[in-house]
Amino acid sequence: QVQLVESGGGLVQAGGSLRLSCAASGRTFSRNTMAWFRQAPGKERLFVAAVTWSGGTYYADSVKGRFTISRDNAKNTVYLQMNSLKPEDTAVYYCAARQLSISSHYRDYDYWGQGTQVTVSS
User: Fold this and answer.
1) SS3 of 28, please?
2) What is the DSSP string of 1-27?
């Protein structure tokens, strides 16, 4: 079992930055692929970024060059640094984990956090 708790969301102006954190508990954190998804009101949950246990990363085209995912296995934490934020980045951001390789499909992830709201004003 892996429990995930996100933090770091908030309100920011367009062009600003936020850093999300996801604290994980569970013995197998270091071997899990970790990912961030986001969901805007009335829309489906969309892939944002993922990082493997060894540090390999993968990003959605919409955030490539602006967002950076990283992990600290010693602290059981994964981060999402979000720069040059746009109003269309507004959503609830979810941390997720799975034991296999990177996937961009939310149904492939076994564990989820409760989400943290990110609002970008224009």
Assistant:
1) coil
2) --EEEEE--EEEETT--EEEEEEEEST
* Region for 10 from its dihedrals, namely left if φ exceeds 0, alpha if ψ lies in -120 to 50, beta otherwise: left
Model confidence at 26: pLDDT above 90: no
Distances (CA, A) of 54 to 45, 61, 116: 25, 22, 26
Closest CA to 48 of 31, 69, 24, 29: 69
Task: Tell me if 7 sits within 8 A of 23, measured CB to CB.
Answer: yes
Q: Is 6 left (phi over 0), alpha (psi -120 to 50) or beta?
A: beta
When pLDDT is averaged across residues 18-41 and rounded to a whole number, the result is 89
Rg (CA), the chain: 13
Q: Are strands 111-112 and 91-98 parallel, antiparallel or unpaired?
A: antiparallel
